[in-house]
Design a protein that fits this description.
This protein is α/β, with parallel strands linked by helices. The chain contains 12 helices and 16 strands. The strands form 3 sheets. Strands 2, 5, 6, 7, 10, 11, 12, 13, 14, 15 and 16 form an 11-stranded mixed beta sheet that branches. It is globular, with a radius of gyration of 21 Å.
Length: 438
């Protein structure tokens, strides 16, 4: 069995096989328990499921724990053929911001993170099917101890007994990291991950937040960026970002030429907003770079389950947003805002989950290059959200549903602002222009 002090390399197919191994040499239902994702989900790996919740306030901790527990108890079930309970549960939540400032209202930063009370409920629900607390590993490379305390994650970890690690640097803390090869990579030949993300005998539980960011809505695909060890996790550095942060031998030869060529081809094919000039991350070629790195990351990361916690959703970008302004460091920027959206979105495919998530957030998914390129790289079967098999999740059963039967919560983003060639789009906006999926 791998330890954190070993550097390992393995492929996606092998990791996926290990994640769901039922080989008698590893474990059997007689020698130890197993669990699996509900067969209604695993038998529909391309589908997306939406569970409605009914929480009155984002401050209602008891209600959020109850939602997490109910979700967990209905989605994870004991099984004779599944994941051994001896496996590690690598839980990736969004735990980026935690320190409130005097100028912020109470609980202002809550919507920037996956809600820790919901995570607590998920963990407690999984304990009830036999997964012990020492099997849970909660990680986010962007989280410092200050962040973890301020966001409530440290207190939650103390209550549940899970293993919570602060940010790790691949050079300063190599014992906390391991390397994984990337199949069919565009930029990254190999990536260093916080252990035990993508290690053998590990089940990846990806629980993102329903919120906006400069990349649109940063749901499951963006969330797993935080599995990557520093400084490799800095995906928002534009075209030259990888070269400035990563060792040369970990990158594809002349990746910048490849990215620029792909960008020209995708712009010619008509990916919306790909014509925005520049080399920084929030321009056409910069977003092409971010998309390539994101898909490389997911190609190396076998998913156990992908979830978006949307008990409450957030627009804007971290601290900032399109609402009532406040002053900080002599710059006037608006505030972000949280909305009681009351949904949990989940499925096996992170791109399909995120396509539905973008639509529920008031955006048209066809306007985002990530989904075009994921389909091109055969990571996603769909682009049109109406083509994705969709189910309402009610008391542990899946009921076929129409997309327009769910209420949308518009979450404005600063994604590829059209402020060039005479265009004057607002900094925070919805990418809700019609897209012809035919």
């Amino acid at each position: 069995m791998i330890t954190r002090r070993n550097f390992v390399t393995h492929g996606t197919a092998g990791a996926a096989a290990l994640a769901f191994s039922t080989d008698a040499s590893t474990a059997t239902s007689e020698t130890q328990g197993m669990f699996s994702v509900n067969p209604a989900v695993t038998s529909n790996p391309d589908a997306v499921f939406i569970m409605r919740t009914d929480v009155d306030s984002k401050f209602n901790a008891e209600a959020k724990v109850s939602v997490g527990r109910a979700f967990s108890q209905s989605v994870f079930v004991p099984s004779e053929n599944g994941v051994p309970q001896s496996y590690k549960i690598a839980l990736k939540a969004n735990m980026l911001l935690g320190k409130e400032r005097d100028s912020f209202p109470e609980g202002y930063l809550m919507g920037a993170n996956t809600d820790p009370n919901f995570i607590e409920g998920v963990i407690e629900g999984m304990k009830e099917i036999g997964v012990s607390q020492e099997r849970f590993y909660l990680r986010d490379t962007s989280s410092t101890e200050r962040e973890l305390k301020g966001s409530g994650y440290r207190a939650m970890a103390n209550r549940t007994g899970v293993n919570l690690l602060t940010t790790s640097n691949v050079e300063k803390s190599p014992e906390d990291c391991h390397w994984v090869d990337v199949p069919k990579a565009v930029i990254h030949k190999k990536i260093p991950y916080l252990w035990p993300f993508n290690a053998p005998e590990t089940f990846l539980l990806n629980i993102a937040k329903f919120k906006s960011h400069a990349m649109g809505l940063t749901l499951c695909c963006k969330n797993v960026q935080g599995m990557v060890a520093r400084p490799y996790q800095a995906y928002c550095g534009g075209l030259h970002g990888p070269r400035s942060k990563c060792e040369k031998n970990t990158l594809k030869f002349r990746y910048e030429k490849t990215v620029e060529k792909n960008h020209r081809r995708h712009e010619a094919k008509g990916i919306p907003r790909w014509d925005k000039p520049g080399r920084h991350y929030n321009c056409g070629v910069g977003m092409e770079t971010w998309v390539a790195r994101t898909i490389d990351n997911i190609a190396a990361s076998p998913m156990g389950l992908c979830v978006v916690e949307g008990i409450y959703g957030r627009d804007g970008s971290h601290e900032y947003g399109p609402h009532e302004p406040y002053e900080r460091k002599r710059k006037s920027r608006g505030r972000a805002h949280d909305y009681m959206s009351n949904i949990i979105i989940f499925g096996m495919n992170p791109f399909h989950v995120d396509i539905i998530g973008h639509w529920l957030g008031g955006h048209e998914p066809g306007n985002f290059g990530l989904f075009h390129i994921a389909r091109e790289r055969k990571m996603s079967k769909y682009l049109d959200p109406n083509k994705i098999p969709l189910f309402s999740w009610v008391d542990g059963s899946a009921q076929e549903a129409r997309l327009d039967s769910f209420e949308r919560t518009p979450l404005k983003s600063n994604y590829l602002v059209r402020n060039y060639d005479g265009q004057e789009e607002e900094l925070y906006h919805l990418c809700n222009e019609n897209y012809d999926y035919s």
